[in-house]
Design brief:
The chain is of the alpha/beta class. It has a single domain, classed as 3-Layer(aba) Sandwich (Uracil-DNA Glycosylase, subunit E), CATH 3.40.470.10. The protein is 31% helix and 20% strand. A four-stranded parallel β-sheet has the order 3-2-6-7. Strands 1-4-5 form a three-stranded antiparallel β-sheet, with helices on one face. The protein is globular, with a radius of gyration of 15 Å. The chain starts with a strand and ends in a 6-residue tail after the last helix.
């Protein structure tokens, strides 16, 4: 697969009641195809979120939107554009950050979490200096993070239920 410059294909998911912002790095190939967050069937994000809020695992984009918004969450990614090979975070180059001010100004965000090290690294480098707010790095829900079992992820991610 060749590296290509890609632009984030969809906007943030939040509303005025969002209190917790979760930032991924950049949408995977499957997410870009679906035009929605965490579209790869092996990504454990939706299983973790469902477990945290005692809900069934959402299947449709409508169900996924609902579980996020009904639980005071917001979703977006740290990267607005980058060069990337496939879905590999390790291949990301020449990243440009998303401007999260639209979320911070249009909601009640109390805490920001990054889904994985790459998102956190880019957040700290590009976004934190602009917004002045620290983010907490959570273990990635990506299938590439095989050393973390679903149970361990659910335990680590329990902090989002503040």
């Amino acid at each position: 697969m060749n590296e290509q410059v890609l632009f984030h294909p969809f906007g943030p998911l939040f509303n005025e009641n969002s209190r917790v912002l979760i930032l991924g790095s950049f949408p995977s190939v499957k997410s870009r195809e679906q035009n929605f967050f965490y579209g790869h069937p092996q990504n454990r994000f939706w299983k973790v979120i469902a477990a945290e809020f005692g809900s069934p695992v959402p299947e449709t984009i409508g169900d996924k939107r609902a579980i996020i918004l009904n639980n005071g969450l917001a979703l977006w990614d740290s990267i607005a554009s980058c060069e990337i090979t496939g879905s590999s975070d390790s291949s990301i180059k020449n990243a440009r950050a998303n401007d999260i001010s639209i979320i911070l100004e249009g909601s009640k965000i109390e805490q920001i979490y990054c889904n994985g090290r790459k998102s956190h690294e880019l957040y700290r480098k590009y976004i934190e200096p602009e917004c002045g707010r620290e983010a907490v790095c959570l273990p990635s829900t990506s299938p590439a993070n095989a050393q973390w079992s679903l149970d361990r992820l659910i335990e680590a991610w329990s902090v989002i239920r503040r």
